[in-house]
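Q: what does this look like with pyridoxal-5'-phosphate bound?
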Amino acid sequence: MINPDLLLLRGSPFEALRELLDPLAPASGVEPALLTVGEPQHKPPQLMLDALRANEHLYGKYPPVNGTEELRQAITGWLTRRYSLPEGMITANANIAPVNGTKEALYMIAEVLTRRAGHNEAKPAILLPTPYYHVYHAAAVMAGAEPVFIPAGPETNFFPDLGAIDPSILERTAAFYLCTPANPQGTMASRAYLKEALALAREHDFTLVVDECYAEIYDVTPPTGILEICAEEGGRLDHVLAFHSLSKRSSAAGLRSGFCVGEASLIKTFLNLRNFSGAASPLPVCAAATALWNDEVHVLENRALYRQKFDIAEDILGGRFGFYRPEGGFFLWLDVGDGVAAARRLWTEAAVRVLPGRFLSVDGTDGHNPGDRYIRVALVAAAADTKEALTRLADSL
Ligand SMILES: Cc1ncc(COP(=O)(O)O)c(C=O)c1O
């Protein structure tokens, strides 16, 4: 017997993309350019490799589920500096859970936040934006919740319209996944928006799950973090969990390291669950993560590389395809009229692989799919390769 909930999972957007493009031959005579996966191609910092090597003798040890004191302190120090938090607002040993990349953690946290519905009882709801990161949906389904998509279109800066959520849904909401800067659209939630979302969570007693994994990749203004709003509101962390990653900040997707910060009782329960599931980070990884959270130099350099690519993209695409510089993150979200047709054409005519927005979205109740008109373009390669690929993309479109 297999858990029937597995049948409710929506395939990953990359599976859908393979189905769309693999039967088609890419244009010949040029190297295919893969602008699909959000995997940074910049080199991870040497200090990460040095820390891994210096601690390799620790691979023989079982790691504690909450990482090391040094790591928790490094994360607390970084959060306090980055968001100008009052000293003592974050307690290293109560509010932080190191995780093996935020993907697994965003998935597993739904188990902590969701109560199984009794017989004949409506399921708890988990709210998520559409377009969305596919893991939020899988998390909701496998935790026994009903995933409720809230459209996030250009009229609301690509964030779900909080005023439009049905009150009967809010009554049974267990969690709300929000991503800022937003993947795929690259917009940032404003202070006012985050404040309203926090107030809603507290009023209706659900947890705001804020995915901030792109928080350190931005153009001009650092994205507001939910912890800043908590600080402004008096410093309490109840109803809040934020997720941060080294995958984008430090171009270290393979390290599998990030953390979750928030309400102490939730963190304690999450760590307890993680202990059962054996989700502790290896000690050399904790040491490398400590070195990375304590260093800003490599982050500034990394950010400058992305800015250079935003400049290149603006030169090539500015004024066309609804181009705007992403405020944060490293994706372009281009309005090409029909994203699926554009992806097919770009592959066959220019050997450029992009992700149709449709594969990141679901149809709304009105039958409209908010991703339909768009393609997502990942600016993760080196500047010269990005320039070449975007030129081919623009010529072909
Ligand atoms: C929106 C979003 N959240 C979370 C993640 C997971 O990142 P990681 O597991 O590498 O921390 C990604 C990765 O692409 C992402 O795009």
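Residues 216 and 249 are 5 Å apart (CA to CA). Residues 38, 101-103, 106, 133, 179, 183, 211, 213, 245, 247, 253, 258 surround pyridoxal-5'-phosphate (CB under 6 Å).
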